[in-house]
Amino acid sequence: MNSFRLQSNPTSTFAYSQLNKTQALLNKNIQRLSSGLRINSAADDTAGSAMATRMTNQIRGMHQANRNSRDANNLLATAESGLNNISDLLAQMRELSVQAATDTLNDTDRASIDLEFQSLKNELTRIASVTEHNGMNLLNGTYQTGTGEAAPVSLANSQNSLAAEAYNQDQPGIVPGNATPADDQRGHWRIQIGADNDVDSQHEFSIMNATDVGLDIKDNDVLTVDKARTTVTALDGAIDEVNRERSYIGSEQNKLQFTMSNLSNTINSIETARSNIEDVDYALEMSELAKNQILVQSGTAMLAQANMVSQNILQLLSN
Question: In the chain, what's the furthest Cα-to-Cα distance?
Answer without folding.
Answer: 142
